[in-house]
């Protein structure tokens, strides 16, 4: 079965600085990959997804992610964070059995 | 188009009580699922359904029952609540089984004392 690892539990970044969140997955073939964001007290919102094709995908709110097959990674990036980006971010992978597996999440704090 | 709706938003139960968490979607999606979210554990799949009349267990099904009598509704039942079921519960749906892309409801925060 597939699995997802988000190595960073908590990241603090200054407003205006760049952000990178790591995601590693375990699956034998090319999976479907997702990043979701959860603002405090809210549900999950899809930021971006990768199914096939161009390995650099653009999402909403200025986020992008790059699929690297050789590293089994799907890291999320944003060039310049805003205070409103403070949230919890989840990487998810779907493969084979039609279910999504989620990572444990990374909490992002933005300092002024 | 309301998307995925969940009721209630908050609930406090005593140990041993039963209740049903409601979930409805108006997108005519075949696939619906229930997750629980606990700190440091991400979202874990409880039960899912691939269509009316068809349900199956996910990763953490014990203590929960589901049924799917209509395409729109997918209630989650706690038969005898336990403190270990204190969590935030999310319902999700998707129309395309292959794409995996899911739409989430706003969640229900459940506390069992």
Shape descriptor of chain B: globular
> What helical percentage do the residues of chain A reach?
under 10%
Task: Provide mean pLDDT of chain B, rounded.
Answer: 93
Provide the gyration radius of chain B in Å. Answer: 13 Å
N- to C-terminal distance of chain A: 41 Å
Structural class computed from helices and strand pairing of chain A: mainly beta
List low-pLDDT spans of chain B: none
Main β-sheet description of chain B:
7 strands, mixed
| Strand proportion of chain A | over 45%
Indicate the multimeric state. Answer: heterodimer
What is the largest interface, and how many residues per chain?
Answer: A-B, 21 and 24 residues
Shape of chain A: globular
Structural category of chain B: mainly beta
Largest sheet of chain A: 6 strands, mixed
The count of β-strands of chain B is 11
Specify Rg of chain A, calculated over alpha carbons: 13 Å
End-to-end separation of chain B: 36 Å
Q: How many alpha or pi helices of chain A?
A: 0
Residues in helices of chain B, as a percent range? under 10%
Describe the 3D structure.
- The complex is a heterodimer of chains A (112) and B (113).
- In chain A, 0% of the residues lie in helices and 53% in strands.
- Chain A has 112 residues and is an all-beta fold.
- In chain A, the strands form three sheets. In chain A, strands 2, 5, 6, 10, 11 and 12 form a six-stranded mixed sheet that branches. Chain A has a four-stranded antiparallel sheet with strand order 3-9-8-7, with no helix packed on it. In chain A, strands 1-4 form a two-stranded antiparallel ribbon.
- The mean pLDDT of chain A is 92.
- Chain B is mainly β.
- In chain B, strands 2, 4, 5, 6, 9, 10 and 11 form a seven-stranded mixed sheet that branches. A four-stranded antiparallel sheet of chain B has the order 1-3-8-7, with no helix packed on it.
- Chain B starts with a strand and ends with a strand.
- The interface between A and B is medium-sized, with 21 and 24 residues.
């Amino acid at each position: 079965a597939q699995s997802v690892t988000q190595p960073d539990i908590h990241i603090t970044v200054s407003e205006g600085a760049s952000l990178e969140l790591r995601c590693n997955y375990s699956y034998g073939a090319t999976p479907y990959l997702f990043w979701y964001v959860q603002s405090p007290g809210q549900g999950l919102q899809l930021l971006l997804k990768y199914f096939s094709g161009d390995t650099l995908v653009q999402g909403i709110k200025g986020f992008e992610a790059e699929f690297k097959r050789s590293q089994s990674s799907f890291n999320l990036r944003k060039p310049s964070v805003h205070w409103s980006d403070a949230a919890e971010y989840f990487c998810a992978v779907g493969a084979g059995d039609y279910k999504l597996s989620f990572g444990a999440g990374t909490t992002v704090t933005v300092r002024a | 188009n309301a998307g995925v709706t969940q009721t209630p938003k908050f609930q406090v139960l005593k140990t041993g009580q039963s209740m049903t968490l409601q979930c409805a979607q108006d997108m005519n999606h075949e696939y619906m699922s229930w997750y629980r979210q606990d700190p440091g554990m991400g979202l874990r799949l409880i039960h899912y359904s691939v269509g009316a009349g068809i349900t199956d267990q996910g990763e953490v099904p014990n203590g929960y029952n589901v049924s799917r009598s209509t395409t729109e509704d997918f209630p989650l039942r706690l038969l005898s609540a336990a403190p270990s079921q204190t969590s935030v519960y999310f319902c999700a749906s998707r129309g395309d089984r292959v794409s995996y892309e899911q739409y989430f409801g706003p969640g229900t925060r459940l506390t069992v004392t």
